[in-house]
Amino acid sequence: MTLAPHKKAKALKPSSRRPAKELCSECGLCDTYYIHYVKSACAFLNQQIADLEATIHGRSRDLDNQDEWYFGVSQDMMAARKKEPIPGAQWTGIVSTIAIEMLTRGMVEGVVCVQNTEDDRFQPKPVIARTPEEILAARVNKPTLSPNLSVLEQIEQSGMKRLLVIGVGCQIQALRAVEQELGLEKLYVLGTPCVDNVTRAGLQKFLDTTSRSPSTVVYYEFMQDFRVHFKHEDGSTETVPFFGLNTKELKDVFAPSCMSCFDYVNSLADLVVGYMGAPFGWQWIVVRNDRGQEMLDLVQDQIDTQPVDSKGDRRNAVQQSIPAYDKGVTLPMWAAKLMGVVIERVGPKGLEYARFSIDSHFTRNYLYVKRHHPEILDDHVPEYAKRIVGQYKLPD
Question: What's the whole-model pTM score?
């Protein structure tokens, strides 16, 4: 079926199918007739987080509050874990549980989430889930660029009026920019923090370079103990210290869009569920507005919670990491393991670890944009990110 341009669309030339070019994050918007909004909606063509925060949350972040530089607009924050974890979930299954509760209680008619293809566990397949089983089939992160918004046409054509969308920052910014065109009565957004996604080929290079058994990896995550944790098919866990990664080989594996992103914490979601601000084994939850609280309330009796904490000082570690990454320094594995043990004991924890991760990525990404896309540097980097980066001395 040939799809007509959207009713309010302005035509684009065929050559503009990917207007962001190499910075395209493959969010899926350009695979739909909503491509006609891409020049205003795309996070890499029109960075508008502050304006959209004001629209979605009722205000943009307070730049006099340093915590909001890092974590965005919020009305509550906590560490949490399910009392009875979902088998096979990457963490304890809070995201899947919220989605299932919203669907089974009739709050939404569908859930935009990402399953995997039949022949590749890491190849994303965006779907509109309409049953708990379809939601559960989407558990476990897919660390590759994913066209989640490619299903937007199905939403409007289905007549669906209440929807939950699960996604990452670049997808959610584009979604928010076209939200009023979807014909929905209620949209809920459950976000996950996101950094350093790759193409499928890039993922394979990372696995081949880093894991002892690339073909058996089920999922992996960069964790608060400064190690990459690989979960394998036999249930075993393999850990590799951050400082032992082959930085020189892997510097070019991450997508240019991810190297140009300053929305690690998914600023425009109603509710964010991740891990980086929580103790090891717990999940980090940020409630951004009343819709987010409404979503979290559904599972309060199924989770244990505790206040977020913050220990240590990240700044020296961040400053030292900037030239090390820039020069592609890789430590011998024995030294990397030793450094990892020391930093795990005395390094940043809780929210300070989250700040460490944000600082490290924002300084790296600022340098990337400055060197590769200097013409967009001032407009593309949000003010909060400029303030974060401004705490450090950067190479030219």
Answer: 0.91
Q: Is 308 left (phi over 0), alpha (psi -120 to 50) or beta?
A: beta
Q: Which of 253, 255, 223 is nearest to 237 (CA)?
A: 223
Taking the CA atoms of residue 145, residue 96, residue 86 and residue 287 in that order, the dihedral angle to the nearest 10 degrees is 100
End-to-end distance of the chain based on CA atoms, in angstroms? 52
Kindly list the distances between the CA atom of residue 72 and the CA atoms of 79, 114, 248, 382, in Å, as whole numbers in the listed order: 17, 25, 32, 12
Q: How far apart are CA 111 and CA 17, in angstroms?
A: 27
Please give the average per-residue pLDDT across 173-188, as a whole number. 95
d(CA 168, CA 195): 9
Per-residue pLDDT tens over the stretch 300-354:
999 999 999 999 999 988 998 898 777 766 667 767 677 767 777 777 899 999 9
CA distance 222 to 214: 16
| CB-based contacts of 101, cutoff 8 Å, min separation 6 | 107, 298, 299
